[in-house]
Each structure stands twice: as structure tokens, then as C-alpha cells.
Amino acid sequence: MLNKPRVADVMTKDVSTVYEESNLQQVFALLAPYRFRHVPVVDGRRLVGIISQRDLLQVQGERLHKNPALRAQAEHTLEETFVRDIMNSNVVTIRAEASLAEAARRMLEHRVGALPVVDEAGQLLGIVSETDLLRSLTHML
Questions:
Q1: Structural domain includes residue 54
Q2: Total structural domains in the chain?
Q3: Cα(16)–Cα(22) distance, rounded to whole angstroms?
């Protein structure tokens, strides 16, 4: 019998994270070169929250406006808004030893696109996303 794939087999281990004290201008600068849709918020290595792309888009507002005054006001808002102000602290997580089926079930049940992977102490080990699950499924098929 084949071993069932586990979260540890497909999760992203090298995860970019942010801190509660980071302002949103710093978060946007961090994320600009990447295509992340979820960013874990940590205190040291302990997971304390998560920010989604949707959270950031709601705050971003007028940042891309053509009017320089509105754009400057939006940039100021990003400097004055901190991760702790918009993060979700009720994070749905999963353990590395869980099955991919369990990860998919949790994502569907909680309507989330990614699950931070934590150990028993709440230390961040990685993240598993919808994309990771789909990539794994294509390899299985």
C-alpha cells in the first residue's frame, strides 16, 4: 500500500512572514516581487495571525489613484496602518503530519486559501496553499 501524502510533503517551508508592528507600506514592499496571497504574522517563530491579499486590497484603496493628492493620502494611510490592525488572529492551522485530504477539508470548511503549518507549540513550520494541493493532485493523476 502506498503512503498517503502528508502536508509536510507539499507545504512551502521557506515562508515570508511579517510582524504585527510592521506597517502596510513595509508589507507591500515585501510582497511586490512575489505573488503571495497569504502572509503569516509571527512573533519570533510563533504564529499570531495571517494577512490575506483580500485584507490588503481593502486597505489599499486610493494608493493607485491618478490624483497625486489622493495617492499621497493613501500612502500616508499605509504608513500609519499596522499589520496588527488588519490581521486575522483566529487562524485556521494544520500540522505537518496531517493528510492532504484533511488540509483540503479544512480549507473548504473554513473557506480559506491557505493553512499555516504549525507544530504543537504554535511555531510556524510552513504554509500549504490551494496551489500546493492542486500541484500535488496533478502529480498523483
A1: yes
A2: 1
A3: 13
